[in-house]
Amino acid sequence: MQMTNDVVQLFEDQPIRTAWVEDEEEWYFSVVDVVGILTEQPDIDGARNYWKVLKNRLKEEGSQLVTNCNQLKMRSPKDGKRYNTDAIKTIGAK
Hints:
- The chain is of the alpha+beta class.
- It has three helices and five strands.
- It has a five-stranded antiparallel sheet.
């Protein structure tokens, strides 16, 4: 996937890392950031751990959500470096 940029967007004043994938002409959103906001995690580590446990449970159940996640390099809020991050697009996400 050709990613042209990554941007932080706000949802109710909470940051969500996003990436525009040129090849697909789609925005992808960091799953960890969305999970953190929806579950009111105090920090990125709490959100990451919550997603890790949830992701494993979903895999065991055979959920397509985990299959629909892509790994995109996004900038870490902790150190500013770019790491592979689970990301999903809004269109077609189930």
